[in-house]
Design a protein that fits this description.
3-stranded antiparallel sheet; about 325 residues; 5 helices; about 50% strand; mainly beta; Lipocalin; elongated; 10-stranded antiparallel beta barrel; about 15% helix
Length: about 325
């Protein structure tokens, strides 16, 4: 079980320094407990990534002329709210093999993967190991970034290409070609349709700004191999699908364009531990599933210098998201 926890830390923090976490041994033989505990622990990572991936789909409401195009690199960061730094551990959710060490309380707040590293913020958990021994250990530590740098964020990045089609409609393609290494695999693909609305509504045609609608979908897949040399079937799989719908508006002012939108963002994220392990009898023992969404409103500014576009916007949603875009366009 230690491997499960180690790789989840690695996925969130990009560091193997957490590999000394020993709570894994406490969860041997209690797979249901491990699944419940890890689902609360990983939740802000899975949720935040779902919102982060939906950032930066547009930098203007004006669509391309026929065969006009743009190419850009989009980087986003979803801000983890303070409520995402802890999750509630209720004794009643777990078997008697895993409970709070303090018998006088039945629930407590534990750090998530973005929570505190401090021992004082990590209540003791009591568990019974496979040999029947009673042991106490501190709850898993978080990355502690909120204390070190003042905030927690889940980043994402993607290449995006847009091309103008018929009837003032843009097709947007997002992709990262499949990256394969002995230790990981990663790929991303998505597409969006942006359509000008002013052409269809008489009174809207006279408005001194552009109005359009955007529908977009994105799929991100990654896999980290835990023991590529001796057991290549052991891997952690992380898959996220997102959907976005927004009504957009923008106004061009010289080299600047002010843009914004309002709509809804949603996601599904799955974290699966694949392969067979000595600690448990079942193959593919861990499956964590997340689903959610919220209303979304964003406001941004684009600056154009010749063919170069530089944009930044901020989206207000469950996990507020900041996005920056750099690229070029030919309209």
């Amino acid at each position: 079980m230690k491997k499960y926890i180690t790789i989840l830390f690695f996925m969130a923090c990009g560091s193997s320094s957490f590999s000394q976490v020993e709570l894994g041994s406490a969860l041997e033989g209690t797979l249901e407990d491990a699944t419940i505990l890890l689902k609360g622990y990983v939740r802000p990572l899975a949720e935040g990534f779902g919102y982060s991936v939906n950032g930066g789909w547009f930098t203007t409401a004006k669509t391309h002329k026929l065969f006009g195009f743009d190419v850009a690199v989009v980087a986003s960061a979803a801000m983890v709210p303070s409520s995402g730094e802890t999750f509630t551990f209720n004794n009643s959710d777990y078997s008697l093999k895993l409970q709070l060490d303090d018998a006088t309380i039945s629930s407590a707040e534990l750090p998530t993967i973005f929570g505190s590293q401090e021992l004082g913020d990590r209540p003791l958990l009591a568990f019974t190991d496979n040999d029947g021994n009673s042991v106490s250990t501190s709850a898993l530590p978080g990355a502690g970034l909120g204390k070190e740098i003042g905030f927690n964020a889940v980043p994402s990045a993607v290449i995006q290409v847009g091309v103008g089609l018929f009837k003032n409609t843009d097709l947007k393609i997002r992709f990262i070609p499949k990256q394969t290494d002995s230790e990981y695999e990663f790929s991303s693909f998505g597409f969006g349709i942006q359509h000008d609305l002013k052409q269809w509504v008489p009174f809207v045609k006279r408005l001194p700004f552009d109005v359009s609608a955007l529908v977009a979908w994105n799929d991100v897949k990654s896999k980290a191999f835990l023991d590529a040399e001796d057991n290549p079937t052991q891997a952690l799989e992380f898959t996220t699908n997102t959907f976005l719908f927004q009504i957009l508006a923008s106004k061009k002012l010289s080299i600047f364009t002010i843009y914004g939108g309002i709509g809804a963002s949603s996601y599904t994220s799955d974290v699966n531990l694949l392969g067979s392990y000595q600690e448990v009898s079942e193959p593919d023992p861990i499956s964590l599933n997340y689903k959610g969404g919220s209303m979304r409103a964003n406001l941004g500014l684009t600056m154009k210098i010749l063919f170069l576009n530089l944009s930044a916007d901020y989206a207000v949603q469950e996990y507020n998201t900041f996005s920056i875009t750099a690229g070029f366009s030919v309209r």
